[in-house]
Amino acid sequence: MTLHHRAYAWGVKAAQGGLGPSDNPYLNASARAAWSSGYESVFVLERTSHAAASKCRC
User: Fold this and answer.
1) pLDDT digits (tens, 9 = 90+) for 30-50
2) What are the backbone angles phi and psi of residue 34, rounded to the nearest 5°?
3) What b/e sequence results for 12-49 when a residue is b if at least 16 CB atoms lie within 10 Å of its CB, and e otherwise?
């Protein structure tokens, strides 16, 4: 697994664990961007899931 894949995965875990975006531990700019991308993906997924659930006519 490359540094960027790991950074993305840790960003996902950080978001799921309730850490803030300022808790990004990476100094390398591209790794910081990957971490942020993973972090933000959790919230995009939650918004998408919530929107889909509210449209469900079950």
Assistant:
1) 999 999 999 999 987 666 555
2) -65, -45
3) bebbeeeeeeeebebeeeebebbbbebbeebeeeeeee
